[in-house]
Amino acid sequence: MIRNVVFDMGRVLFTYEPEKFVRKYCPKEADAELVNRELFGAEEWELTDRGIITEEEYLALVLSRVPQRLHEVTRWLYEHWDEMPQPLPDMEELVSSLKSNGYGIYLLSNMSPRFYRFYRRIPAMKYFDGMIVSSDVRQLKPEPDIYRSLFERFRLKPEECFFIDDREENIRAGEALGMKGFVFEMDIEALKDALRKENIKI
Prior knowledge:
The chain is α/β, with parallel strands linked by helices. It folds into two domains: about 5-15 and about 85-195, Rossmann fold; about 20-85. It has helices spanning about 20-25, 30-40, 45-50, 55-65, 70-80, 90-100, 115-120, 135, 145-155, 170-175, 190-195, and strands at about 5, 15, 85, 105-110, 130-135, 160-165, 180-185. Strands 5-4-1-6-7 form a five-stranded parallel sheet, with helices on both faces. Strands 2-3 form a two-stranded antiparallel ribbon. Strand 6, helix 10 and strand 7 (about 180-185) form a beta-alpha-beta unit. It starts with a strand and ends in a 5-residue tail after the last helix.
């Protein structure tokens, strides 16, 4: 029996559209592509999510790879990217319904410490019973240890949890540990169908 529902954050609880965000401030297409690739697509981004480099260190790496003329806008975009996420329509209602039906609600997210600047702006967060943020535990999905951190900290049984994430590899990693899940593709009705199939009351 499922007793807990575990949510990812980006592209599950909120929209995440860095390309659109960058284009708003970089009107030239080539500049926008470069800044987006180096700022939001750099492999070092994962190091901030793991909590092993600071935001200042990350930004310095990014600026070393973009032309001087783009430094000001790149710096501004990085300092303000937490303004980009917008709550996903209908998700608060779903989370509220799950909570009122007695399910434990948890967060399992790959996120830098920037998370703490904006998470309270996501209305659904007020229903959560606990959260694991990757930069706090220095672990990342889909590594097994971060899932174990969730189970151990909140004394959850994997087989009693249902995980919602936008990345298939993250869902499969949870399944390998005994936690069922669903790959969310911005379709709230498909998610509701998946929950019903698991006899989860919504």
